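Input chain follows. Return structure tokens only.
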Amino acid sequence: MNGSEQEQINEIRRVLAHDSAAASSSEISRVVESHQLAIGSSAIAALTQRAHTEVSGTGPLQVYLDDPAVTDVLVNDYNDAWIDRGSGLERIPLTLGGPTQLRAGFGMRCATRRFEPAGGRPPP
């Protein structure tokens, strides 16, 4: 692998934006392979999966969103997140960058994903 994982994900973002490509798993995998960001099928698949969750907007919360036992995910701040598995809230060890990244990037992507299915936009 070339560079840190975050550098690789940033490169994937840059290439997708330059190519005006969708952030689909197949497009991300194409970028990973063509730019030799990972070598070997298992490394390519792992980086593709991590990059897809990061680029699609859910990032490190994806594991909790995919868990059928989790009924609620609450994010109060970049370092304060909770889940509920039906027996009360549990604090989770999670850091979503910093305050600026949460509000400017991650938070808006999640809000947009939440409102888009209903045909709306998040409040400004």
